[in-house]
Structures are given as structure tokens and as C-alpha cells.
Amino acid sequence: MVPTKEQVLECLSGVQAPNGQPLNRTGSLSEIVAGDGKVFFSISVDAGSVPQWEPVRKAAELAIRAMPGVTSVMVALTAERAPPAHAAAPPRQAAPHSHAARPGSAPPRSTQMPEGVKAIIAVASGKGGVGKSTTAVNIALGLRDLGLKVGILDADIYGPSIPKLLGIRGRPETVGGGTRLKPMTNYGLQVMSIGFLIEEETPMIWRGPMVMSALTQMLREVEWGETDIMVVDMPPGTGDAQLTMAQQVPLAGTVIVSTPQDLALIDARRGIAMFRRVDVPVLGIVENMSYFLCPHCGERSDIFSHGGARHEAERLSVPFLGEVPLDMALRETSDAGRPVVAVDPASRHSAIYREIASKVWDQVGPGRGAARQAPRIVVET
Fold first, then answer.
1. Rg (alpha carbons) of the chain, rounded to whole number
2. Phi and psi for 51 in degrees, rounded to 5?
3. 249: nearest Cα among 285, 222, 270, 267
């Protein structure tokens, strides 16, 4: 029997907050997501009291895990700093899981890779709808074809699409006494996504700190094993997920995906500027939907203009990684969970993606960018 939200709350009444109050009466709980044996919620506390609340988080997780019908639990401890009492107050060091950096303070950062992972790259875009996730999956497969052990992390908490693109269904197994998750696998890739842990239509009504904590757990509480490179499919834009990745792991670099038209390139520039601001190398730009070749007459149409991303790469002095044409077969294989590099390795698109993957690995492979330390990030407001 799958527990309901009400049953989860009742269970949490037996967990005490640091002040002795039942956890379900503290007002610190987020919306509880419960379904199909999975339970997710966060506990929001003041940044200064995080050490006192960590045992509470663990106790809550153990209590829910013991409930009949529960197969997986994620309890995130999120902290937000109250504004300073007066302007002259000295800035405080941000505590773990803090939502944003204050002027003059350094948000939490880690210089350690997840256990077994040798390099991590992000695939990002300034806006949605440019084919970023399809690009991320096929770059990961191109890296696999170089003989590498590859993992892919779906960091798009609000719109996870990697499970569909890779045709993966089901739920990840727990290992280590139920405290860690085992990645799902397909096409020779190890894969983790929040999409494996929630129902497809469940809205993720999570604030920034909750997103940051969930990403941290998917990075560090998953048995990735020996992985040469992890590809992270970032959500579009320049927000919490991007900052979290830059803070939590020493990213070897990022690939920016854009379509050729000016509207998309404006947002791509913002993405490049953001990663440069946090000291993450830009490995290059991919021009997706670069042009369209009619499958019947062979006529070429530049539907979204052409060459804009190449020109932008030259202007910003970053590598141009390649042009990916708009193609019906690519769309069809992606929608069917059969990525083109895996199911049609001799195709033109597969050759393009493998070339992009090779250019990326040339920059981040052993002895190159993989050992870069995570940056110190200061966000001015």
C-alpha cells in the first residue's frame, strides 16, 4: 500500500525538531510529493541552524523509509539566510545549501568529484526549445563511442526529458542499505534523473534551495561507479541549477547549444557570460537546427537563419563545435527514445555528434581540463 501525504505527515509527528516540537508542526516542511512508493519533501531552516537540523533530516528519512510501501525517500535540508539586521553588519559565511550568495560572502563550494567520476561537463542553453537535451544525449553517446565510460545526469528538475529521450522506464534501485541510488542504464550509459522518481505529470513546485539540494543528492548519493566523464543536461537559462553545479563540482567545462537566429543567440550570450562569471570554461557552441534539407528534393532551407552561432563563437573567442541540421528522422528517433547515435551510427547526424564529442574530449580528457578546481562564486546584488 502506497502511503498518502497525510500518512507521511502523521509519521513525521514522531520526529522531533531541535526544540522538541513535532516536525510536522514546525512549519518548515515543503509540499510533500508522495506516489508510487516514492516520497520527497524538504525541510527549510535558517542557515545558522543547519548543524542542529541535519540529525532531524536523517531521522525523518529513516522514519519514512520504514513506512510500508515506501521504496525511495529524498528528504532535502534547505537553508535560507535572513537579511542582515543593519547595513553595517559584517557578511556571514554562507552555510551549506544556502540559496544565494550575499555581497562579499562565498557560497558553499566543493572541490571533490562524485566518487568514481573523473570529469564532468555541462550541456546548457540560454533558452528552451533549442534541442539541448537531444544534443546532450547524443554527445554522451558520441563520448561512449570513443571507448569511454559515460554517465548522464538530468539536472532539469522542472522538465526532465532524459528518461524519454533514452527510452528508460521504471525506478532506480537502492543500494548501501537503502541510502544510495543505483543509476538506470541504457545504450551503455549510466543515467540519473528526477524523472525516474516522480510521476510524469507531477509538477515540481520547488523553490531554489530545494532544487539545489536535490541536485546535490543526485550527484553525491548515487553509485556512479568508475565513470570517465559525466554529461549534465542543464535546465535552460542562468539560474539555481547552473550555480549549484558550478558550486558543487569542479566542472571541466560547458557546451552551449543555440539555434542560429538572433533571439536564441541573445540568450546564448547570457549563458556564456554566466559561466565565464563563475569561472567555468566554455568548451564551445553547437548550432542546432542549423538548416533543413528537404528529403524529397534535396533543397536546403535556412529556416532559423544560418551561421549565427559560428559567428558568435568567433566574436566571443570560444570554439565552434559544429552544425546539426534540422531533420525529421532525428526528431522521430528522439521522441521514440531511440537516439540517433545509438540506433543509426552510420548516419550523417551520428557523424556530426561524434565529431562534437571528440572535440569536447580533446579539451577535458586526462591532463587537460578535468582536474580544474571548483570556483569561488560571489554574486553581487
1. 22
2. -60, -35
3. 222
Cα 158 from Cα 23, distance rounded (Å):
27
Q: Scanning the structure block, which residue is given the C-alpha cell 542557515?
A: 47
The one-letter code for the residue type at 176 is G
* Each residue's pLDDT tens digit, 97-140: 333 333 333 344 455 788 899 999 999 887 677 889 999 999 99
- Cα(174)–Cα(65) distance, rounded to whole angstroms? 11
Find out whether 212 and 245 touch, Cβ atoms under 8 Å.
no
Supply 183's cell numbers: 543509476
Cell of 164: 524519454
- Report the number of secondary-structure helices (H) and strands (E) in the chain: 11, 14
State the first-to-last Cα distance of the chain, in angstroms, to the nearest integer. 48
How far apart CA 284 and CA 265 sit, in angstroms, is 14
| Grid coordinates of 302 | 535556412
Cell of 82: 535572513
What one-letter code names the amino acid at 90?
P
What are 165-191's pLDDT values in tens digits? 999 988 888 787 667 888 999 999 999
23 and 29 Cβ atoms separated by less than 8 Å: yes
